[in-house]
User: What shape does this take?
Amino acid sequence: EKGIAQPVPNSENWVLHISVTSKVISESSLGYKSLTQRHFMSGILSFSSIVLPDWCSTSSCRRGVRMAAAHTTHAGLSFEAMAIKPPSHPTYDLNGIIKLALAEDAGNRGDVTCMATIPVDMEVEACFLAKEDGIIAGIALAEMVFQEVDPSLKVEWSRKDGDFVCKGLQFGKVYGRAHSIVVAERIALNFMQRMSGIATLTKAMADAAYPAYILETRKTAPGLRLVDKWAVLIGGGRNHRLGLFDMVLIKDNHISIAGGISNALSSVDQYLERENLQMEVEVETRTLVEVKEVLQYASQMKTSLTRIMLDNMVIPLPNGDVDMSMLKEAVELINGKFETEASGNVTLKTVHKIGQTGVTYISSGALTHSVTALDISLKIDTELALEVGRRTKRA
Assistant: This one.
């Protein structure tokens, strides 16, 4: 019916308030809110589902909407304060992913079950409970989710990202409006459970791979690239390239199209020189013949090559063991001239043997493409909820 674009006090950010019948939907850089004029927390509504009125065609209003959708940070929560920071990415909007997750959950109505069953003014305490042993990850991201839903929520943790949690441990609490907590619950847990599963497997593999470093790959869930790679860091692994933009990785299809490894390497060297680019260059090899060809090229030409991938040189045996002889020979041929990366047939059972061959890195797609979530729950303190309900005569 009406709306006003106005700056938030003491902030450079803009917020767009739209009044639709009795509900006020607020979209800001600090978070989504959905409440009635009586401060009724009804859940999240997708901002994109709201039709803007005709008056919202002025340049100032358009500026307000654009700024609300831009990359933002939350008050009181910064990357610098996190135990382990997420990888740096030039275009990835972590807050945008949170907003998208909340919006797809809420649809165009918000949490109808909350609105039907939970008193609007009830406040509760909820505890995070580990239901199995593992490495906890996603604490910082979960806190961002709660702040996005309702900045008035208070979150406390007894553990930090990367810590071990045992089954039955209560490692965090959130206080505030019951509606807000329930709306944020599933999104926060989805992130935490996935990230904790990745971190737990990464920790096990990283420990077994020593002295080699464990890497993930680009085999991540679409839209969750940064989240998955962040979890690997939390688990003690290292990040492979973030995407197609930050490293040259010459793989089998590039080699086939270029007409061979030497041609592919030559084309890359020419491209980087022409474009005045400096970045890591890795080439995939599948046989000892290809390893020798790469070494011969590097001995004759000035090259930007920094790493050689040794793909599928871990050979599975019928008895369930693995043959490492080909991988060991490749590492000996390279003799420290370049970093080496073992890839293929990497499992928790094989990674220790691979790490003993002298390779620099071991990459595993299974860290992120076949993740088993760590079981975590959020339990509301029922007695406290009933006590509040009795006080408000709504229990």
Q: What stands out?
A: Confidence is low (pLDDT under 50) at residues 1-76. The longest strand covers residues 123-130.
